[in-house]
Fold this protein.
Amino acid sequence: MDRGDMRPRGARPVVVRVPVEPVEAAVEADALDAAARAGDVVVRGPLFGVAAQSAGDGPRWRVVLEVTAGCPQQARDGLNSQLWFRAKDEAKDRAERRALLAAVARLESERVDELLVSGTRYRVVRAEEYAASGPGGIEAPRPTDPEPLVPDWDRAVRECEIDDGLVVDPDAPVTPTQAFEQLSLRDLCYTGARFPEEVRSDSRRALETHPDVLVMPPTFTVVERTTGGWRPVSGPHATPHAARKSLDFALTWMWPRMRGHIPEDADPRADARTWTAPDGKESADLRAAQLAAYAGAADTLRTGRVNRLEFQDAVYQIARTRRLLRWGPDGPEGPRPSDVNSQDPARIHLTLDEDGRVLPDA
């Protein structure tokens, strides 16, 4: 995770409320302690998702596709797929299905960042991912971050989804520490010479077009310490435990296969805890020792709320990551001209007719 050069350029007041409920007050005290420890902001770059607004929503937008995609086109493709399945499984009549399929057709051929479908606006939104950093390194999960009472390490159990049911409301009151965080980040822009001029220009322009900010709920990512800082080794997760499970999976299943300790054609259910080399292999004892080291490291994660792990001269940490969503008179910011797309628009699904039937390819 690279450290970006960004600078504050002022702030304006936000509506503040003082927490009175015990749990909320504990979260606020926890945030205050974290703010006292933090000394810098580590910026990774933009993430993208999709938000929707319908009649009666006022200034609020609903996140309908989690804001975790690495480029705008990935978010567009996600919206493409979501609308296609709505047309196939949920459309009430031909007119609604036609409207949905017309939107799908545009997404298959255009880099479109906003669509109006059956009275609902869909917008690809852009958020800046960052984390706090202090003398102890990048911020780890806080004591009041959500954790299961009994950790479940079963890989078949699905974890909570990021941004599930999230509504972003620019008028919602915030706590004092939330207000401090928003005000301190409100007028940040890319200024470092290592950023291309078009990136810096877009960043300066965003201060004018989308002058306010909202801080989205935290996510949790496995990062590895490198000579240049921290680099992510997993995608974001909704809870610290889900991030630990992803590191457990990497240690016991993915990395042993990538590094040749478990054959690629081994039983998919086998991992570092269960796989044994066939009898007669000269390297069986060596492999067993190597796999025992991976399993031992993964077992360490299960001893409690472990947020830092040293293994084979590497340091892994569960990082508490945040996302900054810029906001303007017409709602959340969309992709900037300088944002890079890793792929072009393309057809993703088979053709549907107006009755919802899947048509075979010609």
Remarks:
- Confidence is low (pLDDT under 50) at residues 1-13.
- The chain has seven helices and 16 strands.
- Helices lie at 22-37, 72-89, 94-109, 176-185, 197-209, 240-258, 284-301.
- The radius of gyration is 23 Å.
